[in-house]
Specification:
alpha/beta, Rossmann fold, four-stranded antiparallel β-sheet
Length: 270
């Protein structure tokens, strides 16, 4: 039985190799209850592989994965996976064009794409509650094909919440959204994370401007290794961002949000 005080996520010396390539090397990471994390890194840093490991789709070559007090290789991972909500731009491409938003949300309860058979009345009632919670009640009968990109992302959030997850993984969730839709989505996630008993949020991104005030900690990845991790205020510095992205950049902060700029010639990171 998992311990009630166990960390949400604990990775110990996690290494993942595929053929002759080491994708992740000696990753140590602990996420405690009450924390919301950003996983930040450039292309090829290992972010996607890390998520695949957390959801049980990549087995460790070495090291341990503990999730919600259960250990990979000992727990029944398909059952545990139902406690993890996933919102990813790749999921948007897997939904059936003629599927109503209500059905898309219901499929999240069963961790499947495409619902088999007729939906249960209780599931329909619960899905309508979820759609109202995410301010999409009016979309219940609207087919996926006619939803905007912003509406689709919200429906995917509802799909993830349908299973009452303890962890919500947000994998580049703003990909493909226009600036207004992105800001609306980020505001919604920021509000969601502040609700009592909210799931632990894990945002995977390479855009610092998507990091809203709700996130408390950051994990910085580079070349499949942990460059640094800890409280967000200590991680989001010009020096660490320059190291993370291997670029001569300067971090600016305004109204609780950040942005990266090319550092003026002769300037120094801080």
């Amino acid at each position: 039985m998992p311990k009630p005080d166990a960390p949400v996520i604990e990775l110990s010396n996690l290494t993942i190799r595929r053929d002759e390539t080491t994708i992740l090397r000696n990753i140590n990471w602990r996420v405690n209850r009450g924390e919301h994390w950003v996983v930040l890194g450039g292309n090829g840093s290992g972010k996607t592989t890390l998520l695949s490991a957390l959801t049980g789709y990549f087995a460790p070559t070495k090291g341990e994965i503990d999730l919600l007090g259960e250990r990979y290789g000992e727990a029944h991972w398909p059952t545990l996976r139902r406690k993890i909500g996933l919102v990813s731009s790749s999921l948007r491409q897997m939904m059936a064009d003629d599927e109503p938003a209500l059905i898309s949300v219901i499929t999240g309860k069963y961790a499947m794409i495409d619902l088999w058979g007729r939906p249960k009345p209780a599931d329909c009632a619960e899905a309508r509650k979820v759609l109202r919670r995410i301010r999409c009640g009016h979309l219940a009968d609207r087919p996926w094909a006619v939803l905007s990109q912003g509406e689709r992302q919200r429906v995917l959030i509802g799909r993830a919440l349908m299973a009452k997850p303890e962890v919500l993984l947000l994998d580049e969730p703003c990909a493909g959204l226009d600036p207004a839709a992105r800001e609306n989505f980020l505001k919604f996630i920021d509000d969601l994370g502040q609700v009592k008993n909210a799931p632990t949020l894990i945002l995977v991104t390479h855009h610092v401007e998507e990091i809203t005030p709700v996130y408390s900690h950051a994990l910085l990845l580079r070349d499949g290794r942990v460059l640094d991790s800890g409280p967000k205020r200590k991680m989001l510095t010009s020096r660490l961002m320059a190291d993370t992205f291997r670029a001569d950049v300067q971090l600016r902060k305004s109204a609780g949000r950040h942005r990266l700029e090319l550092k003026p010639s002769g300037g120094r990171a801080s």
